[in-house]
Amino acid sequence: MITRIVKMTFQLEKVNSFKQIFSLTSSLISSFDGCGGVELLQDAGNETIFFTLSKWESEAHLNAYRSSVLFQTTWAKVKPLFSEKAEAWTLNSTN
Description:
Elements: E1 2-9, H1 15-30, E2 35-42, E3 49-56, H2 59-66, H3 69-78, E4 87-92
Antiparallel strand pairs: 1-3, 1-4, 2-3
Helix pairs in contact: 1-3
């Protein structure tokens, strides 16, 4: 399993739009082949910063999702809402 963390910073007036998009797509992402779930976290000190944590069986599964129509159409809706470029990390468990 790998963990993918994506940090996204949104324009303040676009936060609710992002939450709606996530609400509509999170179950689709979670049910994507190889995905063990996706979680949305909001920064405690800055309401415009969000993180997604997703678990994947392998980097190949993550890359298949990133190449999918689901990802591309979702990202096309989310990206214009950013106030800063998104950052992402793919992590291996050390256990």
